[in-house]
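USER:
Class, as today's exercise, take the chain set out below, and explain how the chain folds.
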Amino acid sequence: MTTTGVPTLTLDRITVRAVSIPMRRPIVSKVGIYEKWPLILIDAHTAEGVTGHAFLEPYRHNAVGPITALLQELATQFRGRPLAPLDVYRDGMGAMHLNGREGLSVIAISGLDMALWDARARAAGQSLATLLGGTPGPVRAYNTNGLWLIPLDRIGAEAEGLVAEGGFRAIKLRLGRPALKDDLAAIAEVRRAVGDDIHLMVDFNQGLAFGEALLRLHALDDQGLYWFEEPVIYDNLEGCAQITREMRTPVSIGENIYGPRAFLAAVRANAADLYMPDLMRIGGVSGWMRAAAIAGAAGLPLSSHLYPAVSAQLLRVSESADWLEWSDWAAPVLADPIRVKDGFADVPSRPGSGIEWDEAGVKKYAM
């Protein structure tokens, strides 16, 4: 037993499985069409019998193999060592200095990191939020489960459905249709269906060229939108900063930022008003906590991207926590997915990060 009350654990091995889940509302966006959603399920086994769970959402099925191989290589590197997530994060990131601190290597480290933190919280008999010094409780959430670039005559009914799924007070709409009038029509259809009291975030999925983005966003700047998300390619920090300066509507980026150092570079560049790191790219729990400290010190609101169960735990311990992005895409393989009521997700007090497998679902959707 350590002095912190957390039993000492030793990493023994990991097991990795992949599933492919049919999308209830297929993704139709500027970055592609996705009718099935791949997940990489990670179990970190310790010599003491505690197992931590995590998953990754790699978007493309052909990314599963390379990420799985990297995960197994990481597990071999750290096998037999004390299960200390911060040590694994530091040494894993340090090993990438010659190959670059982004891409699939960071994704693999992120997945292992999340599983190790889950195991540590389970061993302590605490929720992840409690282990990190916070408390379980509610987190306000918006629904991201639909409103893709679908036909305009379907938008109103889908918006109503998204609000009803959890009493949501905020939903996300994807924009970037061929003409400005189509984007305006999409916004109008959502407003007609759900009213003006529902916050409406809009996401361009990096689909606009810089000049086009300036024209389009200026034209939409009076629509009362909660944020403009990723109007241009994610690493064009200078362009993002100019857009941020020129718009009244807040600009949000972050889901494609790899690691807290790149996060700091974006903050220093004044690239956005709002940030939303993705656990798969920011570096798992360890990377998130570093990025959250940067956002908190800078007074920048911090929301999440996907991974609602773990993200909700982390928002509970983030100084400038803003919104949880709620999705149910992994729900078919989760025994007790996090749910939303009256617009809030409730972080449970049970040990761990909130992930338990539904083995029947895992078997059904196995790749």
Q: What stands out?
A: The longest strand covers residues 11-29. DSSP finds 13 helices and twelve strands in the chain.
